[in-house]
Amino acid sequence: MENRNIYQIARESAGITQEKAAELLDISVESIRAYEGFKRIPPDKVVVNMIEIYNTQYLAYQHLRNSKEDLQNYLPTIDIKDLPTAILRLQKEVTDYIKIKDELIDITCDGIIDINERPRYEKIIKELDDIADAIMSLKFAK
Fold this sequence. Notes:
Layout: H1 6-13, H2 18-25, H3 29-36, H4 44-54, H5 58-67, H6 83-108, H7 118-139
Helix pairs in contact: 1-4, 2-3, 4-5, 6-7
């Protein structure tokens, strides 16, 4: 798997050969090989077509995260899980948040997060980030 990139994995998961992909994408086989061989990053328009042809929304996220270096710090890595594991993780994260939701209301109801509240507020936001990550894992579950 180390020698395969996101474009190759998406194509192979769809059960499409490089030749068929080139035909469906209306690009050359050499372009497919360059994208899959880490030589070139495909233009966004080609990636949109790959997403539709390969039927993999996750490729959009991966492409955006991998092709735009300045976004890598803002788009977390999504850990793809099987469906039951993804559902259980989401349930766990929601349950964790429910335990502290009243605290979020207490901290924010006055519209101000003072310096003493800031550490706890940041921990609650981390819990919300964990829910968002779990949602994305569920969305893209295998």
